[in-house]
Design a protein that fits this description.
- The protein has about 550 residues and is α+β, with helices and mostly antiparallel strands.
- It folds into 2 domains: about 240 residues, no CATH class; about 180 residues, no CATH class.
- The chain is elongated.
- About 10% of the residues have low confidence.
Length: about 550
């Protein structure tokens, strides 16, 4: 059970990649086969409509051709691919593991000239990247504890202190897991549309740096964001059955503090810590509180946008804690908790700042790191490694979340928060996969696996406006929310593909590679592991 959600930001260089080289594949290549499976699966068209370029085993000559085959057998199966009318077309092939276990993958030859290798620092762009890390605490165990609470604590819970602007209090902060006490002054007190008081506290040593102008801007804009987040995800606090939690009528405290005092934007920039909602704990502030770094706010050129996005993200965590952990005992596993918070930033991005999109930044990073394609985003922990390289889970989750939002809309997103898992599933992670799958199936009968496969197909970089329905990142205008499209043509120089095939295709992972033929027909055979789908895109 996750209950602390900090955000880290650091400056790094994004190296854009050069264009694709040329390569060729013979018509009878067997590069994907190293075994002799006894069963065979077949390829079928995976698109429809005016922009679909698939016709049986031939590319129509216009639009985008998409084919799919999935191995539903108990063992590996053979896939024979023969597609005509594809001379000099770009052919993207994506293996997607729709199952929940890693599978062995027979060696597939990758044409190095088609993988878009880096060629030095031809173009370098500096930008701020937000990364999160998390610490897990067994909140279920804390909620089940029935320790005694003395009379003073009961009175404090029943009649919480009423704060006024100008009041000071000490706050326990621990962005780097070292508990410190900081004194802060209540600088702004506002009331949200649902009647909840929102307090903005500023650490005393930061009073002159977090100016009245900065504070007025973020407090004013956050009122609107708060209403949107609550409308989408639910109340962040209210009535409950536990004696060891703060009671229902609580203000939302936003504490602006200089976390690391290094005179730089970045580092940990915000967190929500559910233990603060508990009574009688030495590390609890006994408050519904979000913590935000001040240096990032006033030293970064995008400080206001980053801070507002961070507050919306952490407010989503607070809501998930109350709605899923406290009220329903059907908590989100870390990956779904983080994915819904990342998606909230995406949903509110145009409202926060139309010129800044953290989701787009993460999407680009996902494209640039070939290791993250073959990673199981449902396993989430700080320092998670995949294929020997450090992986930012947030890049992966942001890319999948952005895909789901643009394909299924805001009603789908709201439905995630309201969906319950099957009671027969005891594992937290599998329950959350079940929740996400049920939410997807309401809008797409294919469910989780089909969405995963279509998301993997997006590595082919679908152009906006001419992509078949169900693929790519189209523009979304839904329930008053505008999400910009991610036009595949704009990211060709960013995409970096693997230089070799992995020995294991990770659960929920992808292995993409390119083929290009000068002749009319492309033919190749592959061994496809169980629960793996193969998507072929011709454009």
């Amino acid at each position: 059970m996750q209950n602390i959600y900090p955000i880290i930001m650091f400056l790094f260089f994004s190296i854009l990649f050069s264009g694709c080289g040329k390569g060729d594949v013979s018509n009878t290549s067997n590069s994907g086969v190293t075994s002799n499976p006894s069963t065979t699966i077949t390829l079928s068209t995976d698109c429809s409509g005016s922009n679909c370029g698939s016709s049986a085993n031939a590319y129509k000559g216009s639009g985008i051709g998409i084919w799919r085959a999935k191995n539903t057998q108990a063992a590996s199966s053979k896939l024979d691919v023969t597609l005509s009318n594809v001379a000099n077309k770009e052919i993207t092939i994506v293996f997607t593991n729709e199952g929940d276990t890693d599978v062995s993958l027979s060696r597939i030859t990758v044409d190095a000239s088609l993988k878009r290798e880096m060629r030095g620092n031809e173009f370098t762009e500096n930008y701020n990247k937000i990364i999160h890390f998390e610490k897990r605490v067994d909140v279920k165990k804390l909620l089940q504890q029935s320790y005694s609470i003395n009379q003073n604590q009961k009175l404090r819970a029943i009649s919480p202190k009423v704060w006024n602007e100008g009041d000071q209090r000490g706050w326990l902060i621990e962005p780097y897991e070292t508990l410190e006490s900081r004194t802060a002054t209540l600088k702004r007190q506002t009331t949200a549309s649902d009647g909840r008081t929102i307090n903005f506290w500023v650490e005393n040593s930061e009073t002159g740096k977090v100016t009245d102008g900065i504070l007025s801007e973020i407090s004013g804009k956050f009122l609107g964001l708060y209403s949107e987040v609550v409308n989408l995800a639910g109340k962040p606090w209210g009535t409950h059955k536990y004696s060891n939690l703060i009671l229902d009528e609580q203000p939302l405290d936003i504490v602006l503090a200089n976390f690391d005092k290094d005179n730089r934007a970045g580092g940990v920039i915000g967190y929500f810590f559910g233990v603060n909602n508990f009574l009688s704990r030495s590390n609890s502030n006994e408050a519904l509180a979000l913590f935000v770094d001040t240096e990032t706010l006033y030293l970064s050129s995008m400080g206001t946008a980053i801070t507002l996005g961070t507050m919306a993200h952490e407010l989503t965590h607070a809501i998930n804690f109350y709605q899923r952990d406290v009220l329903s005992d059907d908590d989100f596993d870390t990956f779904l908790d983080e994915m819904t918070a990342i998606m909230m930033e995406d949903v509110l991005s145009s409202q926060i700042d139309p010129s800044y999109s953290d989701t787009k930044t993460r999407y680009i990073s996902w494209l640039q790191n070939p290791s993250v394609y073959n990673c199981d985003f449902t396993y989430w922990k700080d320092g998670y490694y995949c294929d020997g390289k450090s992986v930012n889970n947030y890049d992966v989750a942001a890319s999948f979340g952005a895909f789901l939002l643009r394909q299924h809309g805001i009603a789908f997103y709201k439905n995630i928060f309201k969906t319950n898992s099957d009671s027969s599933i005891s594992n937290d992670r599998l329950r959350s996969i079940n929740i996400l799958g049920k939410a997807i199936k309401t809008y797409d009968n294919g469910g989780f696996g089909y969405a995963l496969q279509h998301w993997g197909a997006s590595i082919a970089l679908f152009p906006v406006g001419i992509s078949p329905q169900g693929f790519g990142y189209p523009v979304l205008n839904s329930d008053g929310v505008h999400l910009e499209a991610f036009d595949g043509n704009s990211y060709r120089s960013n995409r970096q593909l693997p230089s070799s095939s992995p020995s294991l295709l990770k659960a929920h992972g992808h292995f993409p590679f390119l083929r290009k033929v000068s002749s009319d027909t492309y033919a190749e055979s592959f061994t496809v592991p169980r629960n793996v789908s193969v998507t072929i895109v011709v454009k």
